[in-house]
Amino acid sequence: MELVTADKVAGEKPQITDDDDDDDDDDDDDTNYKDGEEVFEGYYMKTGLEIEKKVHSMSRSQSLDLVASCVYWLKMINSKYSEELAQECLEWIREITGENIDTSGNMDNFYEILKDGTLLCNPPAREKKLTDVIFSLFCFQINSKYSEELAQECLEWIREITGENIDTSGNMDNFYEILKDGTLLCKLVNDLKPNSVKKINVSTMAFKCMENINCFLDVAREMGVPAQETFQTVDLWERQNLNSVVICLQSLGRKGGNYGKPSIGPKEADKNVRHFTEEQLKAGQTVISLQYGSNKGANQSGINFGNTRHM
């Protein structure tokens, strides 16, 4: 019997000649049978053909015929592969995704680059559009209002209240790094108003840090910070508007004295409540406000309209 290998495969489907009787020689030549099984399994894995592996249940000639068929179809399929088109595809993928890949069109390189599918799923590299430029200018305009002096004053006040040994430099990078996870802000409001934040997350995961910031904002509102002087969570976590964070801390710092702690900024005005009696309120209803004008001393003297009447 002659086994036709991949090297002997030409343009036509290979044939296997078996001069022996299949029924008589199925168990005679185990070596050739195992070789055929290895070749079959190798090409089965490489080509990905949807063929059930039934080598062990086949006769020797049937298994070898299946091997030769796999080799034949592999040659036929790969003969249509174009390195020029493959290279063109890889160059296009590199341009779209921005990944630094080898754009050689040979079959091995093409397979190694694309086999895991990650490059095919990568989002395209986004070009810088007009909306991105406008957003960048908007952020620049917001951050231009940022005051390092006020930020430093806030950090010094936080250090005094919490007792934490922090860098009080007012530059934007330091201010962001110290406050971004929200843990120090939660400690601050807990020192001002004990047990106001029940649980402080120490994890560095994004949603945990943003939860800390949300807890701080809720307590700040309860302590009297106006809604227009608070900030959004992303303003701090994504560094979109650090100036609003400074404004919020300044507003909270002015209320420190109400909780027996040092305060910063100008002193807030005290309420001046006035109480009027019922008689005073009724007397005020009889007074004509100057907003309605006055008719005191009004007359028509010296007013003439048109020609006088002749008698």
Automatic annotation (TrEMBL):
Segments for region (Disordered): 1-35
SUPFAM superfamilies cross-referenced by the UniProt entry: Calponin-homology domain, CH-domain
All copies of domain Calponin-homology (CH), residue ranges: 148-257
Domain of life of the native organism: Eukaryota
Listed GO CC annotations: actin cytoskeleton
GO biological process: actin filament organization
Similarity comment: family membership: Belongs to the calponin family.
Listed name of the protein: Transgelin
Organism annotation: Diaphorina citri (Asian citrus psyllid)
Organism taxonomic ancestry: Eukaryota, Metazoa, Ecdysozoa, Arthropoda, Hexapoda
